[in-house]
TrEMBL record:
Domain of life: Bacteria
Organism: Pseudomonas protegens (strain DSM 19095 / LMG 27888 / CFBP 6595 / CHA0)
UniProt cross-references to Pfam families, sorted A to Z: GreA_GreB
Residues forming coiled coils: none
GO biological process terms, semicolon-separated: DNA-templated transcription elongation; regulation of DNA-templated transcription elongation
An MF annotation (GO) of this entry: DNA binding
Keywords on record: Elongation factor, Protein biosynthesis
Protein name, entry field: Transcription elongation factor GreB
Membrane-spanning ranges: none
Region (Disordered): 1-73
Matching InterPro entries: GreA/GreB_C_sf, Tscrpt_elong_fac_GreA/B_C, Tscrpt_elong_fac_GreA/B_fam
Keyword Protein biosynthesis tagged: yes
Extent of Polar residues compositional bias: 19-34
Gene (name only): greB2
Length: 239
């Protein structure tokens, strides 16, 4: 063994030393060099110096390779498939039916049609500017309404403003009384302007046809689904 503090070269080779074995015959521990003794030489290695690389690998070994897990990739769905799904889910709205009756409108009704078409064009442009983020269902409804109201605007026949108080015309305001003397006031307008909740009655409806052409004091038959009823014209006012 090297003494403490002794420098050992990194290239040092093992040294071999001999030791004298005791005689196996006499057991007296005589030297193996004495006559008549049997000797056995044992080989014992000296200090072994191993070098380790700075990387921690043994000489001759390949450097260890760090294995990194694959980078996380977020699953994404192609926008093309999303658009196809949205298109498949879009329900085609029911087309508005265009009646065969003449499209008579008041001057006010014509202005409302023009404003309605302009608004629909504006709303459609806003959705179209959104591109892939546009509401496909809303787009389909806007296009349906544009087809209808554009056609109605082209076929509109503007009637003369009602000025008579002696005869009911399209645009006239009429007050009438039913058989129970209950009075009601309505105005005859075009089909697209009609709104019963506001007292705007389509001139081609059963009530409109009963009132059209009537004069104050006349009794006319209002043919209703719930049953016919006589009504009396009380008053006629211009539009």
């Amino acid at each position: 063994m090297p003494k403490a503090g002794t420098m050992v070269s990194a290239n040092a080779r093992p040294c071999w030393r001999t030791r004298t074995a005791t005689s196996i015959e006499s057991g007296t521990g005589t030297s193996a060099s004495e006559p008549g003794s049997r000797k056995r030489t044992a080989m014992r290695p000296g200090p072994i110096v191993r070098r380790r690389s700075l990387s921690g690998n043994r000489p001759g070994e390949k450097p260890a390779t760090m294995v990194h897990p694959p980078p996380f990739k977020e699953k994404t769905v192609s926008r093309a498939f999303v658009n196809e799904d949205q298109a498949a889910q879009t329900e085609q709205p029911v087309e508005r039916q265009i009646s065969a009756q003449p499209n008579y409108v008041t001057p006010q009704g014509l202005a409302e049609l023009q404003a309605r078409v302009a608004l629909l064009h504006s709303q459609h442009s806003e959705q179209n500017d959104l591109g892939d983020d546009a509401d496909k269902q809303r787009m389909a409804e806007l296009e349906r309404d544009l087809r209808y109201f554009t056609q109605r605007l082209h076929s509109a026949q503007v009637v003369t403003t009602a000025t008579s108080t002696d005869k009911v015309q399209i645009g006239s305001r009429v007050t009438f009384a039913d058989e129970q003397d209950r009075q009601q006031s309505v105005q005859l307008v075009g089909e697209d302007q009609a709104d019963a909740a506001k007292g705007l009655i389509n001139w081609a409806s059963p009530l409109g046809r009963a009132l059209l052409g009537a004069q104050p004091g006349d009794e006319v038959l209002w043919q209703r689904p719930a049953g016919n009823q006589l009504i009396e014209i009380i008053r006629i006012e211009p539009a």
